[in-house]
Design goal:
The chain is of the alpha+beta class and 173 residues long. The chain has one domain. The protein contains three helices and ten strands, in the order H-E-E-E-E-E-E-E-E-H-E-E-H. Strands 1, 2, 3, 4, 5, 6, 7, 8, 9 and 10 form a ten-stranded antiparallel beta sheet that branches. A hairpin with a 4-residue loop joins strand 6 and strand 7. The longest helix has 32 residues.
Length: 173
């Protein structure tokens, strides 16, 4: 009986040490992926990706930077063209996933020629359909229309998709 009790306590100690080590590794991993942006006006912290995620337009070959922001209550997708482009307010934006799912949204930016488009991805939380897709599904593309009504089709490759999924896993915690 005494041997069983000792074995039981050693097993629990080993398991708790393993869990603490795994949690520490996750936190270190997320620290490498996520940057904290303080908002001086609201005193809240926004989270975003540290590393640039760059995606090419399939039509023109132009390069875009992609960022995801998590404010305390919501997620935002930010797309920035690396050349001068104008965008209308409420531009239709579609996210395409490998499983055939597509999610259609409207941009939240104002009319601008700052090469910037923003999209509200909804409230932060486990019930967020878009968040769940970005965590569990393979994002293959983002499509929207520019100011001149030209269609921009951004192809998301495997490295970018992996970065997006890892980032969302970290900022969802």
């Amino acid at each position: 009986m005494r041997l069983i009790t000792i074995f039981f306590f050693v097993s629990i100690l080993t398991l708790s040490t393993f869990q603490a080590s795994a949690q520490s590794t996750d936190e270190t991993f997320c620290t490498e992926l996520v940057r904290k942006l303080p908002n001086d006006q609201t005193e809240r912290i926004r989270l975003t990706n540290k590393s640039e995620i760059r995606i090419n337009d399939l039509v023109s070959g132009d390069l875009y930077q992609v960022a995801f922001l998590r404010e305390p209550a919501k997620y935002t997708l930010v797309l920035k063209a690396l050349k001068d482009v104008c965008f209308d307010a409420k531009t239709p934006v579609t996210l395409f996933f490998r499983n055939g799912t597509k999610i259609e949204l409207l941009s939240t930016n104002k009319d601008n020629c700052e090469s910037l488009i923003t999209v509200d991805l909804g409230k932060a939380g486990k019930d967020n359909k878009i968040q769940n897709h970005l965590l569990d599904q393979y994002l293959i593309g983002i499509q929207y229309t520019g100011f001149k009504k030209d269609t921009i089709k951004l192809k998301v490759g495997t490295p970018q998709n992996e970065m997006i999924q890892e980032l969302f896993e970290c900022i969802s915690k």
